[in-house]
Amino acid sequence: MILGNPASLRDAVPAGARLMGLDVGTKTIGLALSDTRLVIASPLETIRRRRFRDDMATLFGLVDRHGVGGLVIGLPLTLAGGDSPRTQSVRQFARNLLALRDLPVAFWDERLSTAAVTREMIAADMTRKRRAEIVDKVAAAYILQGCLDAIGRD
Hints:
Elements: E1 2-3, H1 9-12, E2 18-24, E3 28-34, E4 41-48, H2 52-66, E5 68-75, H3 85-100, E6 105-109, H4 113-123, H5 128-151
Helix pairs in contact: 4-5
């Protein structure tokens, strides 16, 4: 089920379950995982996209392995805050995912998340190769942490 308000995740996710953050791209899906208290997000891994069913088998395997009770999916809004073809694609990705397994899903504004993460990695003098290897899962953690910070303020 897609939740209209990310704060609803607190009630929709069973106690002790984790949240997983997704940074959905055309070639990869960056994944991040929260702790069981829903306070800290950590990068998990990056799925190289192939066929949707294969991607979902990998994703659901990780969901089951890590005790995930809900998803936070980065929504690539335009800088003006509107939808774009990419935004519509991510919304369709979520609907397709939910057709296979019903989980609480919240969207989180991901505008400039990859840019912010990349800036930090450059500031840390990380090589271009290393940045390319981890940027998607670190962006997923950035997205998930933003949501965790917001829902933790209740």
